[in-house]
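Service request form, structural biology core

Requester: graduate student, group of Dr. S.
Request type: structure prediction, single chain
Budget code: on file
Notes: please return the result as structure tokens.

Sequence provided:
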Amino acid sequence: MQKKLRILIVEDEEAIRNGLEDVFVFHGYETEAVGTGPNGLQKALSGRFDLVLLDVMLPGLDGFSVLERIRAADREQAVILLTAKSADEDIIQGLALGADDYVAKPFSVTQLVLRAQAVLRRSRNGLDNQDIIRCADLVIDPRSLSAVRGETSMQFTRREMDVVEYLHAHRERPVPREELLHKVWGYARDLDIETRTVDIHIAKLRRKIESTPAEPRYLLTVRGAGYRLMSE
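Core staff response, request fulfilled:
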């Protein structure tokens, strides 16, 4: 019998918390739900969950602080943030701190389930390429989620490295944003979705790997076509 995937729900509104538990149990997942930031952090750091659904507004410790501490301990834990619909700054901050994706409130339960399934699918499968990636003086090691340039080292989340690996595997051409959503985030091609997660992950990567992010040498935007990694 296949082991059920486990989801931790960290949401302070009891009605939403209970509703999400019911929905994900119905879809075949094991769930655990808590209502405060400190409890969510403690549970998340146990390493027993395949996905954490993390609300931003939490008592005791906000979702950003919880996420930051999760990422300090585990760069591979899958995390989806639940954010206020109009708060662009929440979305940008959450993805910058290492969230795999976000879903804005009020959300469609169906879309939340689909996006959770997509993140879980990519987290379980990963990408095949584990070779060292070289971009001129930048050396990227997918196995350790790290890179070095001279004396400078940098760390990546699993999702950031998935983007780098996919762009490297298809370095002969620009990769469209929609293809990254499908291949890296696992979204179905026909899923109608509004998300800035690709754009913000690209911006994060440029801040890490480029000496001058505003004038990128390695991770280029090809107008009207997508993104291209200038790797060897």
